[in-house]
Design goal:
Helices cover 16% and strands 32% of the residues. It is an alpha/beta fold.
């Protein structure tokens, strides 16, 4: 064979996979890989490519293989264990997550490409074949056991059978629920949802709900998604905060409510002594004035605001080390603390994912 590509990069597995993380990163940097601060590469995992960039605070689980010509992985990316990402051009945006046992590869061309936007997630056991290219927009989710195929071919085209190689485009804020099958050439518009166990053979317009085998559009604006009034948004956030505090209490934290202000304590026992961490959180439901610094809670560890936080207030909060979560703009600062990360993670359950921004 003139063109040979082993199914597994055995040489790299033997040389690098079982080395400690810090040794592995040192050797990779000597090869010219650009690896950011506090990157974790799990036991048994390897990265092999010609041009490799990995952003700060990215974590790669154990026994994961990432192979390609050009690999670009953003900051705060989490790639699960026993995952195989094998495509010539791979790009993963900041804060995205690929769960365990995800496969990206299969029949491809020299310029095949898989691009996953910022704040996305691919759930476990999904199979993605970027025969031409698969591009996923920001803030989109691919459920477990999904199949995204960039090619459809087996029988001879000379005998009249269909052969198709075409890119797949998935817009921003798209949800593919579990067991969705996308055929080659499909385009899914921004804000659309594909129901479970659906076979998508035609394009789906923006902000539509499609389901079935084959899938068809069953709802669209104004019925889907529904308009939410400002009063309803306040009620939604109050319910979420109530659920979150109940979850925190049930998980071993001690939470005390004072109006829209919460004192949260974590106690951990280590042998003969107890370690105590104290945090505080304030929740703001009304719009914050630009002419004053946050009137209450600016000494909190975390501020959750339903409305957009003005830049002047963000800067003041940053100077005080207060981690803020702006629900309206879906933004958060570059820095974080343990409570802020827990709150942000809990809000993801309700479809709110935050992009890290520099103010």
């Amino acid at each position: 064979m003139l063109i040979q590509k082993p199914r597994l990069p055995m040489k790299d597995i033997i040389v690098y996979s079982f080395l400690p993380c810090f040794v592995k990163k040192t050797l990779y940097r000597l090869k010219g890989y650009r690896i950011g601060r506090k990157v974790s590469i799990g036991f048994g995992s390897i990265i092999c490519g010609k041009k490799v960039f990995i952003g700060d605070h990215t974590k790669i689980g154990f026994f994961t293989i990432i192979r390609g010509q050009e690999i670009k992985i953003g900051s705060h990316v989490n790639i699960g264990s026993i995952t195989f990402l094998d495509t010539p051009f791979l790009e993963i945006g900041d804060d995205s997550k690929i769960n365990e046992q995800v496969f990206v590869g299969g029949l491809q061309f020299h310029d095949s490409r898989f691009v996953l936007g910022k704040n996305c997630q691919v759930m476990q056991m999904s199979f993605i074949n970027p025969a031409k290219s698969i591009i996923v927009g920001d803030d989109s989710g691919i459920g477990g056991h999904c199949l995204l195929f960039g090619h459809a071919s087996w029988q001879s085209q000379f005998e009249g059978y269909p052969v198709d190689f075409a890119p797949i485009e998935i817009g921003n804020s798209v949800s593919l629920t579990w067991r969705v099958f996308l055929m080659p050439g499909i385009k899914i518009g921004d804000g659309s949802v594909i129901g479970p166990n659906s076979l998508v053979t035609k394009d789906v317009p923006p902000k539509s709900l499609a389901a079935g085998f084959p899938a068809r559009v069953i709802s669209r604006p104004p019925d889907f998604p529904k308009d939410v009034s400002e009063e309803q948004k306040v009620d939604i956030l109050r319910n979420i905060v109530e659920e979150m505090i109940s979850y925190f209490n049930g998980s071993g934290l001690r939470c005390v409510k004072i109006g829209d202000y919460y004192e949260i304590t974590q106690e951990k026992e280590f042998w003969f002594f107890k370690k105590v961490k104290r945090f505080s959180m304030s929740v703001e439901y009304e719009r914050i004035s630009k002419n004053e610094f946050f009137p209450k809670g600016y000494n909190s560890s975390v501020l959750v605001s339903l409305r957009a936080i003005p830049k002047e207030v963000r800067r003041e909060l940053n100077s005080r080390g207060v981690m803020w979560l702006d629900i309206e703009k879906k933004e958060r600062p570059l820095f974080w603390n343990d409570l802020g990360d827990e709150v942000a993670l809990f809000l993801r359950r309700y479809g709110v994912r935050f992009l890290r921004v520099k103010e």
